[in-house]
Design goal:
Helix 4 packs antiparallel against helix 5, helix 4 packs across helix 6 and helix 7 packs parallel to helix 9. The mean pLDDT is 89. This protein has 3 domains: 88 residues, Butyryl-Coa Dehydrogenase, subunit A, domain 1; 108 residues, Butyryl-CoA Dehydrogenase, subunit A, domain 2, CATH 2.40.110.10; 135 residues, Butyryl-CoA Dehydrogenase, subunit A, domain 3 (Up-down Bundle), CATH 1.20.140. The chain is an alpha+beta fold and 394 residues long. The longest helix is centred in the last third of the chain and has 25 residues.
Length: 394
């Protein structure tokens, strides 16, 4: 692993750590450890103001090229930022889809006009994005997208019709990037386009998906001849662009995700010590296994990030989603066992969950979203090990 931190990187670490300590106070102090997975519905307005606070400090888009308004930070410094952000307990980012996915994709494939149009709103923390990928019949099988885009022969503008589902924070977003079919009759990854769509138009309906707890953090989104603001790339480029975007999703943010996992494990250990659960040898063994699994996760992520950017990630990167999703699900179960009978009690009605109760419930979905464990194993077998493709029914 070639990823190492020099003296300048450590000064960068001190800068971000001290900035977070100075700014996660006052109106933002109650946001600590809030707004992450399973808690994204909490404090949306306050977290939007936090995005603008980050932007004012120059901490949005740090890995973007300087020519696009970023800092041009190295991979090492981006890793440091993600780690220190999570270590400080800073809130879940409402702007992460724009900064980490939409922005880098527009930088990589967009025109100069598109960059000038969309990047400033992301960088100043005033415009937020959601992702229009999954559909009722295209979850793990993204190539089964049915949403269609039709070009108006007179204006040349694209109109989009279809449905997206599990769209996180669509109700808080001004923009959505949408994968849609541009060629009638096309199948699989052919004939797709990557569109940028303004959410505030009457042809788009956002319907929250209410969970058992009565909260909603993701939505169904219906497009009824909705106008696309821009097409990134050319018609037919959608699959290539979408796959590049997924590569951004599994970049340096993985180290920040692991620091959040460490925060959760630390809380479990604290409770195990305080309530006596740590005296159970079986619980101690599971805590040790959780610690070991998290260290292995970190080493694998460092290996991925240390690779040659020109050749892309090697096949070892294919195991990452399967590993962390299964590990995190097991961590949720460990949390409930450490809590004991207390795990079944609520602080208040109707569903006032503690941090670890939310962890347990949300980690049930970790092995489903973003590609189920079964799909991940197929990907590892077929792309990583070169095994024959799974037989498909007719």
């Amino acid at each position: 692993m070639k990823l190492t931190f020099n003296a300048a990187d450590e000064r960068f670490r001190e800068d971000i750590a001290s900035w977070l300590q100075a700014h996660l106070v006052g109106e933002f102090e109650h946001l600590k450890f809030r707004g992450g997975p399973g808690d994204e519905h909490m404090f949306p307005e306050e977290r939007k103001r936090w995005e603008q606070e980050l932007a004012a400090g120059g901490w949005v888009g740090i890995g973007w090229p300087e020519a696009c308004g970023g800092r041009g930070a190295s991979i090492e410094q981006q890793v440091i930022f993600a780690e220190e952000y999570a270590r400080a307990g800073a809130p879940g980012r409402i702007g992460h889809i724009g900064e980490g996915l939409a922005g880098p994709t527009i930088i990589a494939f967009g025109t100069p006009e598109q960059k000038a149009k969309y990047l400033p709103g992301i960088l100043n923390g005033t415009e937020f994005w959601c992702q229009g990928y999954s559909e009722p019949s295209a979850g793990s099988d993204l190539a089964n997208v049915r949403t269609r885009a039709v070009r108006d022969p007179d204006s040349g503008r694209w109109r989009i019709t279809g449905q997206k589902i599990w769209t996180s924070l669509a109700h808080e977003s001004q923009w959505c990037f949408v994968l849609a079919r541009t060629e009638p009759g096309s199948v699989a990854h052919r004939g797709l386009g990557f569109f940028l769509v303004r959410m505030a138009q009457p042809e788009i309906t956002v319907r929250p998906i209410e969970q058992l707890t009565g909260t909603s953090e993701f939505n169904e989104v219906f497009f009824d001849d909705a106008l696309a603001e821009d097409l990134v790339g050319e018609p037919g480029d959608g699959w290539r662009i979408a796959m590049t975007l997924l590569g951004f999703e599994r970049g340096v943010s993985t180290l920040g995700q692991q620091m959040q996992f460490q925060n959760e494990l630390d809380e479990i250990i604290r409770i195990a010590r305080s309530n006596g659960a740590a005296s159970d040898p079986a619980i101690r063994q599971r805590i040790a296994e959780a610690h070991t699994g998290l260290r292995l996760m970190r080493y694998n992520a460092l290996r991925m990030l240390s690779g040659d950017e020109r050749s892309g990630p090697d096949s070892s990167a294919l195991v990452y989603k399967l590993h962390w999703a299964s590990w995190h699900r097991n961590l949720g179960a460990l949390a409930m066992d450490v809590l004991g009978p207390e795990a079944e009690l609520l602080d208040g009605a109707p569903y006032e969950l503690t941090r670890l109760q939310s962890l347990f419930l949300f980690t049930r979905s970790d092995t489903i979203y973003g590609g189920t464990n079964q799909i991940q194993r197929n990907i590892i077998a077929e792309r990583g090990l070169g095994m024959p493709k799974e037989a498909k029914g007719r």
